[in-house]
Specification:
Two copies of one chain form a homodimer. The first copy, chain A, is α/β, with parallel strands linked by helices and about 300 residues long. Chain A has twelve helices and ten strands. In chain A, strands 1, 2, 3, 4, 5, 6, 7, 8, 9 and 10 form a ten-stranded mixed sheet that branches. In chain A, helix 4 links the parallel strand 7 and strand 8. Chain A is globular, with a radius of gyration of 19 Å. The N and C termini of chain A lie far apart (about 45 Å). Chains A and B meet through helix 8 and helix 12 of A and helix 8 and helix 12 of B.
């Protein structure tokens, strides 16, 4: 495996997955911003349910210009925020044969990257993982960790299968799908209710949300809206998906969502990627999603106020 | 005017309206709880746009038992909260000829009182006023102040007209209506969006809510749900009501809602009176009100968390 991999972002997702690849000796370069000094001098430390490990990247750069070669894969592991312009961040590192893999949250997040790099392969990736960055270069991985990859908008290429092999080789559970857009809808079934409500209901964990009967029925109503969106978008989800998500969450260890952690630390939340894009899809497809729309309008204002009060 | 009036509650509403009646020398008794000592020894002080004034109640009691006579009117000026049982608070003061007037917020708040006192006149009252209690016995009245009275469930009796005369005599703008339930729906058009959103969107004033186009359309959608409830309930509102409420609020001085003031002081919010009863009416009438339902579930949990963190 002599592929060269460029991981953009050394937060929870980049640090865990990129670190895992680096730890088995693959050629992994990292683009870091605020954590640059620490990661360059000390590498990464990941406290993980898979076993704690350290990783030393092959290279640590502050800008994609510094890389000086075109990697085989770019793994974009940044939060999806309006102020983060992925195409301009990665452009200097995108060669003709570079595949761009977005391991990010949300729905309908690929178009800007596809538009900027129309002849490159765009791989869309979903991480089913519970992890967070505890300090510069330090990640805590608490549970789960499975990756799902697929080409955007559909299918699975050899390049994508190869990347899945690389992840599996590093010990990361990874599957591929021909319908990654459908997989994103499926993930949104969980994210659309639990992430926003955890913040809007006053800072609550998953078990607190589900202990209230009325709140549980709101959660189901939101999930149902996601299912109706997905169906109209041509990606019908299995009818069991709502029950499964509810009962799965009931068995989980009580959990603070990533959005709630962001809110509490006065960091920007992925409001647009998770809710705004769903609302826009609803308009485009003519599907009424009043519950999600309500969450979106409230959370957008909460996010704005929260950042005014923060740094 | 020798009617004897018993004001239950010396918060913003009881203090302002009861105080105004006492200030012109009418026989006004007050039931106070936490403010008992102050009101008994120092009376009430109201800083008002109508002119500041002091008022000395004829009697100040801690319990309705202490009154020792049956008043002509009981003015219930308490917040509408599940933990406040109005019938048992007022019962010792309710004689055969006592009219009970509820000057309270919310929708469908009269049935418990009507059920407890089936042969008494129930007057339902709405205060269009901007005022709050600043300290025990001290009220600040910032703007507006009109009262609307009507018999519950409909009509206007001589007793009600007499009470309206008394208020007007004291300088309080007061009109009567044959359809007070409709008037409550009309007031809910404003309360249902602005009160909950002011809290849920992160502590925002009316102007902040209306400055965001998306939030403004959410507010209109919530108002539309109230109109559909009112219509199905047999009290259709004028079609201009939404536009009027929006443009009226745009011209208001930026305003913190009473719900936001309650939230910030960790006091219970009128979640059930304003939203819960609307949601239950929606179920009963078969009207889908998903935006209001979303606000209700979120706010109920916020209220619970807020009081856990408070006293």
């Amino acid at each position: 495996m002599d592929e060269r991999i460029f991981v953009v972002g050394s937060g929870a997702i980049g640090g865990l997955y990129g670190g895992k690849l680096a730890a088995i000796g693959l050629d992994v370069s990292f683009l870091c911003r605020s954590d640059y000094e620490v990661v360059k001098s000390e590498g990464l430390f990941i406290k993980s349910v898979w076993g704690d490990f350290r990783a030393t990247p092959a290279r640590v750069v502050k800008n994609a210009e510094e890389l000086n070669f075109y990697p085989d894969y770019i793994l974009v592991c940044l939060k999806v925020l309006p102020q983060i312009d992925v195409p301009s961040i990665i452009r200097p590192a995108v060669g003709d044969n570079t595949a761009i893999c977005l391991i990010q949250n949300g729905i309908d997040i690929e178009p800007p990257v596809q538009k900027a790099f129309p002849s490159n392969e765009i791989i869309s990736g979903l991480a089913f993982v519970c992890c967070h960055r505890t300090a510069p270069g330090q990640i805590e991985h608490l549970d789960y960790g499975r990756l799902v990859l697929g080409n955007y908008p559909k299918g699975t290429s050899k390049t994508t299968e190869k990347l899945a092999d690389i992840f599996r080789h590093a010990g990361i559970p990874c599957t591929t799908t021909d319908d990654v857009v459908g997989a994103r809808w499926q993930k949104l079934v969980w994210n659309a209710p639990f992430n926003p409500i955890s913040v809007l209901a006053g800072g609550v964990t998953t078990d607190e949300m589900l202990s209230d009967t009325g709140m549980k029925s709101l959660i189901r109503a939101i999930m149902d809206e996601v299912c109706r969106l997905a169906e109209k978008d041509g990606h019908p989800l299995p009818s069991s998906v709502i029950d499964e998500n509810i009962s799965f969450t009931e068995t989980m260890t009580p959990y603070k969502t990533s959005m709630l952690l962001d809110f509490e630390s006065k960091r920007p939340m992925e409001v647009e990627a998770i809710l705004g894009n769903a609302v826009r899809k609803g308009k485009e497809l003519g599907v009424a999603i009043p519950h999600i729309e309500t969450l979106y309008r409230l959370l957008k204002m909460v996010d704005m106020k929260n950042r005014e009060n923060g740094r």
